[in-house]
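Model: Ready when you are.
Researcher: Fold this.
Model:
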Amino acid sequence: MEASALTIEDGAAKLAGDLTFTTVTGLYHRMQSVAAAAGMPCSINLADVGKIDSAGLALLLEWQSVFRNQNGSSALIAISNPPPALLKIARLCDAGEFLSENPDTREE
């Protein structure tokens, strides 16, 4: 699975395909357009994500940063169904708190 897709419905995003170095640029630009028109989505579902690497993590962290700038310094996008590989990479980078499924209950 190489291709990636981003769908937005009712303020929620869903990603499908791979989140790798070869796919994140297109997703980044697509989300920039969405954010400019309607703001960042408040949740992202990763249930249909295949491969993911550090570029995929970097993309999600960038989206969290944009969301925080739009919604307040402590706001986070809720990430649902993160693949185990993403959680492993995030732990290695000490970024796991930014991928919480329920950001309101994360530990400070």
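Researcher: Now this one.
Model:
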Amino acid sequence: MNDRETPDYVASEYVAAILGTLRHYDRPKRQPSVAAPTVWEAQRLVTHVVCLEGAKVELDIAQIEVSGCRILPEGA
């Protein structure tokens, strides 16, 4: 369920907020001999989103899948 700070968030916006926080605080280490990404790819930080039956947050599946995450139905 959404709270008062995120009243209109859809599922992909929660994923984006989590990714933004993770990327801010945990950047990959750069090594001179290896070309490392400057930010982690989404699918390396969040791999799956679990969809619970009766959830009140709108699940925008296509947008979540664009980031490389998979949707799991409850009980999967």
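Researcher: Key takeaway?
Model: The longest helix spans residues 11-25.
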